Amino acid sequence: MNTWFSGLARVASRAVPALLGVGLLAGCVSDGAAEENVSPESAADSSLLTAEELRQELRALAREVGDGYGGRVGIAVATADGVTHVGLTGNSWSWSTIKVPVAVVADREEVATEALIGASISSSDNAAAYQLSRAIDGDLGDLPHTPELEALPGETKWSLVEQAQFAAELPCLDTVGTTYAAMADIVDWQQYGLAEIPDAHFKGGWGGDTSRVYTVRQLGTVPVGTGVVGLAVITHPDDNSHDTAVEILDAVGSGLAELIEAGAIGPAVTCRS
Q: In this structure, are residues 153 and 98 in contact, taking their beta carbons and an 8 Å threshold?
């Protein structure tokens, strides 16, 4: 238990259905004209989902996975249209996902070493994270889309919507880049969920919110086109099993990967001045 600090089923007809596989995209042209040339840019634009279409896809994905494995699911995706969210709000204990903003602030304030950040993020080492938290006096300052830390930071409530927004802006917020790099070097036994998406930078957290509610959650940043997408996912498995939670997030991650690979999700607007 990660107890740090704490006791597609529908795509518009103009797009190829993501769950049918991206291989079909190569043969798609308008009006059935096999000889018509379609530029990569126009093809990508034609498959991009609107916010409502994306919501429908995410809702179907969450329902299918939750019913299939037994559990409740929440998904938030930050794009240029804002954050599209379905299912669980995730407005509950952040667990070790909160280590990401802690590490970013500690690096900014030059009170962290690369080794401490690597241990805190890559392997979710609680002792290293505790040192970073003490070094910043438990204060995330003006870091956007982050909550005020609780005395036990892992018990800080951090919603999926805010996490997805934070993840979308993370490459800009992490001006040094050490934390973001560590999120691409997660230890093998934590390689699940958003790890199913190629090139994802992510961090997870897990534990028992109560004796009857077990949580596994992740936030992540994924390169898409010329930008990135911010993601946040969470599950409460019906059997309170970590293994089941991992299976659920693996399925969610695979579904998100198919949508991204099909060009259905566009990048967020980041690095605002």
A: yes
Q: Do the Cβ atoms of 138 and 149 come closer than 8 Å?
A: yes
Give the side-chain half-sphere CA count within 13 A for 242: 10
Shortest CA distance to 225 belongs to which of 261, 257, 249?
A: 261
Question: Within a 10 A sphere around the Cβ of 199, how many other Cβ atoms?
Answer: 11
What is the rounded CA–CA span in Å between residue 179 and residue 136? 15
Question: Is residue 212 helix, strand or coil?
Answer: coil
Give 234's strand partners. 74, 217
Write phi, then psi, for 217 (nearest 5 degrees): -140, 160
The pTM of this model reads 0.85
Residue type, 188: D
Q: What is the pLDDT of residues 24-81, one digit of tens each?
A: 222 222 233 333 333 334 334 568 999 999 999 999 999 999 999 999 999 999 999 9
d(CA 161, CA 88): 10
Q: Is the separation of the CB atoms in 47 and 264 below 8 Å?
A: yes
Give CA separation, 73 vs 62, 151, 152, 177, 247, in Å: 6, 28, 25, 31, 12
Q: Check: CB of residue 216 under 8 Å from CB of residue 249.
A: yes
Kindly state the tokens that stand for 65. 């996975």
